[in-house]
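Hey,

Quick one before I head out. I ran the complex with pyridoxal-5'-phosphate overnight. Inputs first:
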Amino acid sequence: MGHITGLKCKECGKTWPKEPTAACAECWGPLEAVYDLDAVRRTFTRDAIAGRARDLWRYAELLPLDGEPTVGRGTGFTPLLAAPRLGAALGIRDLWVKYDAACHPTLSFKDRLVAVALSKAKEFGLDTVGCASTGNLANAVAAGAAAAGLRAVVLVPVDLEAAKLTATAVYGATLIGVRGNYDRVNRLCTEIADRFGWGLVNVNLRAYYSEGSKTVGFELAEQGGWQLPRHVVCPMAGASLINKVDRAFQQLTELGLVEGRPYSLHGAQATGCAPVVRAWKENLDRLPLVTPSTIVRSLAIGDPADGLTAVATIKRTGGRAEDATDPEVLECMRLLARTEGLFAETAGGTVVAAARRLAKAGTFDDGGRVVLLLTGHGLKTVEALSEKPPFSTVIDGRLEEFEDFWAARGPEGAPAHAQV
Ligand SMILES: *Cc1c(COP(=O)(O)O)cnc(C)c1O
Ligand SMILES: [Zn+2]
């Protein structure tokens, strides 16, 4: 079980009891879980953790439950993979990827957050949960709620990718399409949480929910042999993940599970929705107003709740922020697939493209380990790549046809690649 003692406002520092609540009732600042690290220390050791089930609950002491987890067994503990062929293409010597496209059960890292949020919702005795989502969270909440026997109400922008809609409705969730962008959906969900008393995971359960993102950081440390990577490139939407990776590294350092070596956290966004990147690049002390326009739907949040904290985290760790245009995103989704055999969604293409720009600028010249966070599966955003069937050719099935096609392929004998 976790050793959470309460919630603390990140703005004014006031502490609050463990309840479903969206923000500090005094200053509207964001809330964060506080732990009794002395209690954590007693059982949270490298050896003890090594003997536990291979899911995110192996880090339960630093997750915000009071009892045993009831949702998300088997979630997390995704592969951390060396990516030498992609590294050669990007000019990065020691490149690795964290492949949350393989996260159980809905193929994005949102499953981690939902495991925590819905376990907490059950502790609170809530019977209805929901979320505002750009897609992946909708999938994860709908699946998690079905497995937990909770009612789910999910609100999304009406024009999301088809796969993300189908992979929400199939679980029996009530799916509401909102004519407007994510920021509109999010505002409505805040009102619904107030009115109906439901557990909306990224609204009034946000302080618990967002703790799930720390498990990415815990795994980077443990799977790296309890050494922190030198560089991590994180996709940013609401910009919680990047801050929680930082928090995870800090907690592990404080507990003595890793050495306190320097690390840099870098942020990636799509050029069509890059408020945090712009705030970092232009040294703004407020986030610029942005109306999202990009194929990278999962990162299309124009008003990221944790955006300013992310800018501070990036600065404090000596990181950088980069954006990637839609054509670069598509190119880098293909590059990743063709060098490493990994199919990540548009958010992954954004991270790879940003890493390429960062590498060109000399960011990784220290030769330290670089990890890219690939947070969702490419099958969720196939329509970003192609509208027509991506065959290299279509034939009736006669050998001569195939021979003609093969003989006519590129001059160096390279197979004629379809324009996927
Ligand atoms: C939600 C999401 C993110 C970003 O997470 P934030 O914590 O909101 O910054 C990144 N990648 C994918 C695929 C997501 O669904
Ligand atoms: Zn406050």
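The first strand starts at residue 4 and ends at 9.

Talk tomorrow,
K.
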